[in-house]
């Protein structure tokens, strides 16, 4: 692959991110963009095929493989070519694998997250990183949420989205019900049950915790469909946490073993 072909591959990526949040409906095709040498390395370790590299002239470390087509540009050229405001030292273009479905990730899970309307890719990446680190078994990516394999989400998760079981689903509650999960909806509502109490009441059972968008939170439909509305108690004068921070607290509580486990 010559430099012109590489430039064509990496051109206008920011615009593509804005226009296309997901791969085609069959779940195949498109690029998996790994930003940063560490995330590129983790993609390769996960077995994904590296098609090409875009590398900054400021990078002095080793390249993943001399056989991979590589375009080296200065940071300003990279910004003009890709449209990204800033980029780490390296961008790897991998073949994107098929998206998992709920039936791929739920059978062996006992603790799960559901994301509904979490549009910020950095929040999605941070949530998946917390879920992976704190032992949550799976995450369902519901309607309106950012793609875990998007560049920013994958970068923020530090590659955790490559190993954490997740699936995109149009109807997460139906999928969870079919797998025998109770669904708890996280909300700042004052009359909601404190999360530790709700989890203790379901010790030994399969539990999924639903988290909503930064502003409006979970939809009325999700709140109504849940088995219980739960909350993380705040100090006086504070109504809520950032969704990624709330998810980290919730993941720790969710992953604690109950008396029957």
Order of helices and strands: HHEHEEHEHEHEHEHEEHEHEH
CATH architecture type of the largest domain: 3-Layer(aba) Sandwich
Total of helices: 11
Structural class, by secondary structure, is alpha/beta
Describe, in plain words, how this protein is organized in 3D.
This protein has 261 residues and is α/β, with parallel strands linked by helices. It folds into two domains: 3-95, Ribosomal protein L30/S12 (60s Ribosomal Protein L30, Chain: A, 2-Layer Sandwich); 102-254, 3-Layer(aba) Sandwich (Alpha/beta knot). 33% of the residues lie in helices and 20% in strands. The protein has a seven-stranded parallel beta sheet, sandwiched between helices. The protein has a four-stranded mixed beta sheet with strand order 1-4-2-3. Helix 7 (151-156) links the parallel strand 6 (138-141) and strand 7 (166-168). The longest helix has 13 residues, at 121-133. The model is unreliable at 19-28 (pLDDT under 50).
Throw out a few tags for this protein.
60s Ribosomal Protein L30, Chain: A, 33% helix, 4-stranded mixed β-sheet, 261 residues, 20% strand, Alpha/beta knot, 11 helices
Q: Can you summarize this structure?
A:
With 261 residues, the protein is an alpha/beta fold. The protein is built from eleven helices and eleven strands.
């Amino acid at each position: 692959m010559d430099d012109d072909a590489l430039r064509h591959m990496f051109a206008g990526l920011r615009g593509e991110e804005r226009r296309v949040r997901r791969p085609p409906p069959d779940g195949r095709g498109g690029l998996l963009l790994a930003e940063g040498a560490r995330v590129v390395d983790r993609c390769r370790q996960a077995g994904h095929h590296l098609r090409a590299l875009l590398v900054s002239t400021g990078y002095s470390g080793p390249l993943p493989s001399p056989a991979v087509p590589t375009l080296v540009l200065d940071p300003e050229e990279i910004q003009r070519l890709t449209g990204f405001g800033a980029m780490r030292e390296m961008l790897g273009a991998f073949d994107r694998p098929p998206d998992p479905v709920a039936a791929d990730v739920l059978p062996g899970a006992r603790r799960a997250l559901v994301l509904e309307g979490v549009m910020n890719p950095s929040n999605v990446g941070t949530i998946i990183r917390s879920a992976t680190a704190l032992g949550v078994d799976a995450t369902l990516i519901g309607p309106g949420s950012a793609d875990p394999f998007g560049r920013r989400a994958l970068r923020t998760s530090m590659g955790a989205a490559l190993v954490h079981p997740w699936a995109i689903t149009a109807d997460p509650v139906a999928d969870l019900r079919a797998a025998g999960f109770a669904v708890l909806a996280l909300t700042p509502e004052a009359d909601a049950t404190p999360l530790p109490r709700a989890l203790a009441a379901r010790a030994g059972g399969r539990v999924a915790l639903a988290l909503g968008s930064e502003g409006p939170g979970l939809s009325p439909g999700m709140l109504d469909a849940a088995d219980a509305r739960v909350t993380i108690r705040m100090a006086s004068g504070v109504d809520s946490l950032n969704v990624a921070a709330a998810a980290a607290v919730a993941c720790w509580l969710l992953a604690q073993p109950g008396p029957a486990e």
